[in-house]
Amino acid sequence: MTVPLRVALAGNPNAGKTALFNALTGASARVANYPGTTVERREATVLVPSGEAVSVLDVPGTYSLVARSRDEEIAHDALTGRLGGERADVIVSVVDVTRLSRSLYLTLQLLELGRPVVVALNLMDEAERRGLRVDVALLAKRLGAPVVPIVATEGRGLDALLAAVRGAAGTESRSPQKTLAAEDLAAVETARAALGSPAAPAVEGEALFYLTSGAGLRARLEPSARAALEPLGGPAFSQRLIAARYALIGQLIDGVSTATAPPGPDRSRRIDRVLTHPVGGLVLFGGAMLVLFQAIYAWSGPLIEGVEAGVGAVGEWLAARLPDGAVKSLVVDGLLAGVGNVLVFVPQLVMLFVGIAALEDSGYMARAAFLLDRVMGSVGLHGRAFLPLLTSFACAIPGVAAARTIEGRDRLVTMLIAPFMSCSARLPVYTMVVSAVFADAAPVLGLSFGGLVITGMYLLGIVGALFTAWLLKRTALKGGAPSFVLELPDYRLPRLRSVGLHVLRQTRAFVVQTGAVIVLLSVILWAAMTYPATALPPEERAAVEARAGDDAEGAVERAQAQHRLAHSVAGRIGHAIEPLIEPLGFDWRIGIGLVGSFAAREVLVSTLGQVYGVGSDVDEGSVVLREALRAAKTSDGSAQAFTPAIGLSLMAFFSLAMQCLSTVAALRRESGGWPWALASIVWMNGLAWLAAFATYRAALWAGL
Amino acid sequence: MHLTQLALEAPSRVQRVTGDDSLAERLMEMGLVPGAEVRLLRTSRLGSPIEVEVQGYRLCLRASDARRIEVG
């Protein structure tokens, strides 16, 4: 089989690049991240009508190839083959015909790379609607490259585009001549010779890339080339170059695009008058978020129950067929529980991805960022950080995923603070503690004391998030409020196919990549809570039987489970970390709960149920567990083991701690590796320890 | 005079973008080059961000960034 033709799609955000990619490849694309980055790499190999195989790479959307941000650097490197394999045989420059001059800026840079370029003139239907007539042949002649009109969302013009791509393979491109001062032209020639050789100089694009990029990028050059480039380029050169490119674009499009009718009323501007109205816009935004969270939180409920019921049914089916013993326990309590932990997130994620895709495709996301930029900017975040943080009140996993709509390092800041938002898994813990220790507390100003405490925990999480963002923006991820130079795209009706493909790809990537880690970690945790298996000593067994009377069998079973857990690896860890958590008021029993809650926070409730000997079938409202917690004595039997001070301390810890393996797995995937995921564990748990310590001491001081 | 001081909807031309950092380059690459026609379409209630039209499309900027664009 011959090597498929490699085609790279490049274009501005919103130019329809992804629509073209979808139209060419359908659902077959593989989604991965570029190594060590948060930038998604989409690639697919398809058979074109002639039977030939073509591999299509979707390059990150960018306005320019100058490497000012990591994303732009990746776009450049992906096109030139510095990143992840071979360079493209043909570059398709996707151009929004309704924004011709701005779109051609990137096209000029692509032509400078010397690779064959085919211009896909997208949104021709929109141009017709606006009465724009475009002289395609004239534009092609002036650019010196084939230009093919297409409507990507409807799949129009694709055959002609593919034919042009095949025809262009193997040719060379040359950018139309810009008007630059003699000294700048000389600098470009010097750089070309230094980057290649005097006999075979590097292409113009390569020279311009290094002349306009920061010093950091030049570090990857050979010392001799670096020295030759040292006195060249710089900010003033960059600005002259940008102006020269735009001057050239002015000449190129002169007479190419003509209005055949006077421009009608701008539909998008009319919609904006309502949607970004200072008051009405915020109200509508609130409404949109309400619907989204209803979907994530409530409408996914039946689906989640369905998943849980399905996993439970499979568990019972397996349990009935496998012989009792270690294998059965591993499969049912370890593996299947792990798979369940992955699948249970899928309904919420699907709802979120549908919502985000619809908001993005319609063009509304840019307006929401416009509305909220002032608020988010005050803590150094981008207007777009709002949605991921709000989402994280339901669950940090979709929250971390929602940060994808943000660019660069601000995406990382947003992902790292998202898990501070009190997610729905923390609520059972808050509820359990409050009902155990504050059930009889007098209302304050007519408000339930427990409710106030829980509100305080939500606020504590928000404070932790803002503090962390503030700190990150001043240290590791330094940089002022991210520049907010945001294009307002025209409103478009989201396409069902586009939204569907987006949701399918994102969900598949989550299940495959994050899911594998979650399952693995769940199995490890199961082993820690199960082994070594120890039997209840006969004398204790007899004592339990004597005490229990009627329900001897159940009591012995519970005592056996309690004994086994206490002497398991997790139990031993609980004992071992007792000195560490003692300052927070916790004993080893809560220690086991903490270890167990790393699978998922709400597991604390059932783990404490086991540790305190009421069985594992308890929920946060359980009267039995509440009574058991209140009755529990310290190891020497002298004092109450679970006081209000300890309860507050425990809640403060849960509010800030990173205890969710699934979130860690999501962070690892989204941040492109372990370092940030591990840093997040250390930082959040350290902060949680300090907060719990301060809370415990303050509560003791207050006499609680 | 800079961009935020323009009357709403009044056409004007970019004179220059001040500063030599990456933001200046970013603004120019988005089409705010000397000579380009630009209109202020809207300022949000708190004065930032603002919305402008340039190169036939609409762009949001923070007021603090827009002050670096001299027009006339």
Overview in brief:
With 704 residues, chain A is an alpha/beta fold. In chain A, the strands form two sheets. In chain A, strands 2-3-4-1-5-6-8 form a seven-stranded mixed sheet, sandwiched between helices. Chain A has a two-stranded antiparallel ribbon with strand order 7-9. Chain B has 72 residues and is of the alpha+beta class.
The shape of chain B, in one word, is globular
Number of domains of chain B: 1
Largest sheet of chain B: 5 strands, antiparallel
The CATH homologous superfamily of chain B corresponds to Ferrous iron transport protein A (FeoA)
- As a percent range, the share of strand residues of chain A is 5-15%
Q: What does the model show?
A:
The complex is a heterodimer of chains A (704) and B (72). Chain A has 704 residues and is of the alpha/beta class. Among the domains of chain A are: 5-168, P-loop containing nucleotide triphosphate hydrolases (Rossmann fold, 3-Layer(aba) Sandwich), CATH 3.40.50; 182-259, no CATH class; 517-701, no CATH class. Chain A is built from 33 helices and 10 strands. In chain A, strand 5, helix 3 (100-112) and strand 6 form a beta-alpha-beta unit. In chain A, helix 7 crosses helix 8 and helix 20 (409-417) packs antiparallel against helix 22. Chain A starts with a strand and ends with a helix. The model of chain A has no long low-confidence stretch (mean pLDDT 82). Chain B has a 5-stranded antiparallel beta sheet with strand order 4-3-2-1-5. The radius of gyration of chain B is 11 Å and the shape is globular. Chain B is of the alpha+beta class. The longest helix of chain B has 8 residues, at 22-29. The interface between A and B is large, with 38 and 33 residues. Strand 10 (486-488) of chain A pairs antiparallel with strand 4 of chain B, so a sheet runs across the interface.
